[in-house]
Amino acid sequence: MILCEGDVLRCAIDIRAAEAVVSVIFSHGLTMDRVDPQPAVACCLIRERTGDGRKRAQAAGVKFGRKPKLSDFQRKEALKRRAAGETLAEIAKSYAVDISMISRLS
User: Fold this and answer.
1) What is the 3-state secondary structure (H, E, C) of the chain?
2) Whether this model's pTM surpasses 0.70
C-alpha cells in the first residue's frame, strides 16, 4: 500500500501494535498530523490494562469473587447436622443463610 500526502489511514489494532506502527512511520522520516483515537481503541486499551492488573493481582495471591458465607468448619458441621436428620430450614436459620445454600453443600 502506498500512502500519499493527505491520505488517512484508519485501522483497528491494539495499543501495542499501534505504538509499533507509529514508530515505524517516524523511523522512515514520515510525520503524522494527529492521532485520532477511536472509542474502540480506548476500550481496547482499558481492557488490556485491566487484564494486566488482574494478572498481577492473581500472581500476588489476591482472591477474586464473593467471599463464602460459611467457613469450612461451618460447612462440615452443617453436613453432619443434615446427616443426623435436622431439617434444612433449621440449619439454614442457625447460620443466617438461605435453605438453598444448605441444600447445595456436598
Assistant:
1) CCCCCCCCCCCCCCHHHHHHHHHHHHHCCCCCCCCCCCHHHHHHHHHHHHHHHHHHHHHCCCCCCCCCCCCHHHHHHHHHHHHCCCCHHHHHHHHCCCHHHHHCCC
2) no
